[in-house]
Amino acid sequence: MEEKFQTLIHSNDPENRNKWALEWKEQGHKVIGLLDIYVPEEIISAAGLLPWRITGTWDAAVPRAAVHRPSMTCRYCTHVLESFMNGDLDFVDGLVTTQIDDDFKRLYDVLNYIDKPGFLHIMYLPHTTSKTTLDMWKKSVNSFKEAIETYSGNKIDPDELQRQVLIYNKMRALLREVYELRKREVPALTGAEALGLTSAARIMPRELFNEQLEQLIPYLNERKIEKSDGKPRIFMGGEWLDHPGYVRLVENAGATVVMDEFDTGSQYFWDIVYDTSDDLLGALAKRYMMRPGLSRMAQWEMQANRNLAWMNEFNADGVVELRSLYSLPLDYRYLFMRKIYDNNNIFYLSLNREYHLSGQGMLQTRIEAFLEMVERKYRATSV
Amino acid sequence: MKVQENAGLIYIKHEIATCERRIKRIKENPDPSKPQSNILLYEMERDFRIEQREACKTGKPVGIASMGGLTRAMGMVPWDAIMSADRTHGKAATQYFETIRKEGIPEHTCDRCSILIPMVQQGDFPKPQFTFMSNFECIPVLFAHAALCHTMDIPSFNIDIPIKSFKMDNDEEGLAYVVEQLREMVAYIEKTVPGTKYNEELLVELQEYDRQFLLEFRKLWKLKATIPCPLSGRESFREIRLPSMYPDPAKAVDYMRLYLKEIEERVEKGFSAAQPEEKLRLLWSVAGPFYDDPFSWLEQRGVSIPAAEMTVYNGWFSGREAMWGDPWPGRKLTPLEEEARQMDFVWGREGHYWVDTHLHSCRDLHLDGIIYFQQWGCPTSNSLGKVIADTAEKELGIPTLLIEGRMLESSMFDKKDFYGRLEEFTEICAAKKANRQTSP
Lengths: 383, 440
Description:
The structure holds 2 protein chains of 2 kinds.
Chain A: H1 2-9, H2 19-26, E1 31-34, H3 41-46, E2 50-53, H4 63-68, H5 75-85, E3 94-98, H6 102-114, E4 119-123, H7 131-152, H8 158-180, H9 191-201, H10 206-222, E5 233-237, H11 244-252, E6 256-260, H12 266-269, H13 280-289, H14 300-313, E7 318-324, H15 328-343, E8 347-353, H16 360-382
Parallel strand pairs in A: 1-2, 1-3, 3-4, 5-6, 5-7, 7-8
Helix pairs in contact in A: 1-10, 5-6, 7-13, 8-9, 8-10, 9-11, 11-16
Chain B: H1 10-28, H2 38-58, E1 62-64, H3 68-73, E2 77-78, H4 81-86, H5 91-103, H6 111-121, E3 130-134, H7 139-152, E4 156-159, H8 166-169, H9 172-192, H10 200-224, H11 233-236, H12 249-269, E5 280-285, H13 294-299, E6 303-309, H14 313-318, H15 335-341, H16 351-364, E7 369-375, H17 385-396, E8 400-405, H18 415-438
Parallel strand pairs in B: 1-2, 1-3, 3-4, 5-6, 5-7, 7-8
Helix pairs in contact in B: 1-2, 2-12, 5-6, 6-7, 9-15, 10-12, 16-17
C-alpha cells in the first residue's frame, strides 16, 4: 500500500504529470487547463472534458516568457507562459481562468495574443462576497457553462452535472478525511505528501482518483510519519505553491507541517456543494465563491478567522508562509495577518520565494531560526 | 512604525507652502515658457489642501467614494492619498522606501501603492473616515487601500468592476451591477460615517463641472495634434484632477479655459516645445522616472511628447471613452449611473482595450514611436508592453521602446543607461520615419 500511496503523491512530478491527460486524449477527449480554484470543475467534467490544473515549468530559465513578462511579475504566471511557449503544454486544448489579479488577466491577454491554447475563457470573479456580487458571479458561471458547451459541442445534461457534483463532493470528503489524520499527535502524512495528494486530485480523472484514495484510507489510518516528537507543529501559508520541495524544506528544517491554506492544498477541496436539488448552477456558484478564499478576495477578516480556527483545530504552534515573489495580493495581506497573529500571540514567519524551487539555503536558515524560537516557547509552556 | 495619533497634516502643510511659493514666483517673476494659468492651478491646489486641513481640525469627514463628485455629494472632503503619493519623489520617496523595506510593506509593487501605506500609517497624511476600495483602476491600488483599511481600522466598501468594459460595450448588465454596489455603498457611508448624507442635486452639479472641464480637454486633444506640438512633455504628463475634487469647481473650469487659450496662442505663434525644431513625436506610456526630467532632455533633441498614455485620460480627451453626460443607447443615465460608468477605466479591463487606446493616440496625434515605461511592479501594464510593441509595429510601422524603472524612487536609477537607451531609440524612430516618408 505504501507503494501505491507513493505513486499517487508523486503524480504531479514532472515525469508523471502529463500521464492522465495524455491517456484522456488517447480516448478522444479534450483537456482543459486550469490555473486557480475558482473555476467550477464539475461543469468541465460534465461536458466530457478533463479539468487539469497547470503546473508551470519547474525550470529556473523562462527565456520565452521573459519577452512578454518583465521579471517583477507573478512568477507562477510567468512559468505557465513559458510552458505554453516552449511546447510543454501543446497537448492542452483549452484554458479557463478567473481574473485572480492583474497578472492572471494579462497572462490571459498574452495567451490570446499568441493564440495558445485553442480555447481560452476568462471568468469574472468579484473581490468580495455579497448578494450583489454573488448574483453577478452566477451569471459568470452560466456564461462559462455556455462557452464550454459551445466548445465541446456537448449540451450539458443536468443529470450528468448532478452526478459530477457528487463525484467532486466525494473527492472533497475523502481529502477531508485524510486531512483529519493530520490533526493527530503523530500525523499520518507529511505536509509535502499532503500537497502531492491534492496535486494528484487536480490532474487525474476524479473518479479514478477517488477510487485510488478510497483504497488507501484504511492504510493511512494506521500510518504514522517518522519522528514528529517535540517538533513544532506548523501551519503553512502560500499561494501558487505546487512544488512539494518547499514544504519538505520546512519539514527538513525541523517542523511537522500539520495544515495549510494553500490554493493547491486545503482550499481546493475544503467546502462541498450544498443544496443541489433545484438550482444546481447556483449551488455551484455559491460553493466556489462564498468562502473565505484566497488573498485576492478582499475579505481578509474571514481568511484570518478561518486560519485561526484551523490553527486551533490542528493544534499548530506557528505559521510559516512562503509567498510567491511578485504576487501582490498575499504581499499586501501579510500586513494585516501580521497584526492578527501578533494580537493572538502566534509566531508568524512570512518569506518570499521563487515559483520553481530555489534559494533553499537562505530559506532554510531563516526557517530554522524561526522554529528554534517556536520550540523555545513550546518547551517553556510544556514544563 | 509610529502610530498615527494626530490628523496627519505634514504633507498638507508642505503642499500649501509649495503652492504659495509657486504662486508668488509666477506673480513676481513669470517664466514666459510656462503657462500663466498655472497661478489658478496652484491656487486651486492650495485651497483644496486648506480645505482638507480645516476638515481635519474641525472633524468634518474626509474620505473618498468613487471620484470627487460622489465624495462631495456624500458630504465628505476628498481624500487623495494615492495621488499625493504620486507627488512624493526624490529624497522623500527614498525615505519612504527605507520604511517600506524595514516594515515588510510590499516594495515590488508600483511606487505609489507602496508609498501610500507608510505615508498614511506614519501620520504624514490624514487618516480618512471612509475609503472605497476598487479594482476600477488596478489590483495594486485595490490591495494597497485594502491593506490600509485592514491595518488602520478604516471603514471601507468594495466596488467591483467587471473584467469586460461595460462603458465601451454599452453593457446594461455591467452598469446596473456597479450602480447597485454604489447604492449599497451610499447607504453604508450614511450609516457608518457621522455627518454624511447623499445629496443628488450636488452630484448632478459637480458632474456638469467635470463635463465642462473635459469638453475643454477634448479641444486640447486637437491642439496636441498640431505640428509642431505646442505642449511640453511635462504638461502632457500632468495628472489632472477633475473640478469635483476642488472646493471651487467653477474655478477649475475657468482654469482649463484659460490654459486652452494659452495653448491656442502658442499654436498661432507656431511655438514648438521641441527645440530647435520638432523632428519626432512620441507617445510616453504608463509612467516615467519623475525624479528626473527625460521630457526636457528629449525636447532639447527635437523630440516632443504630445501625450502620455495613462489610465483613462486619453480615452476621455479623444472622445473615445464616454464622459459624464455623453450618450448611452436609448436613454439618459441617472446620476449614479453616470458615476458608475466613469469607474470603468479601460486599462484595468481586458488587454485589448489598452492596446487599442495606444493605436488611437498614435494615429490621432501623428506619432512616430512609443516609449513604454515598464514601472516595476505594475502587473496591469507591464505584460502588455510586448503586445503593444508588436501591434504598433505591424499596424502603424512605428517602434516601441520597452524600458523598465521606478517612477518615484530613484536610488536604483541608472541615468547613463536610461538616457543611452532613449538616444538609441530616437535614432531608430528617426530612421523609421525617414523610411515611411520615402516609401511609396
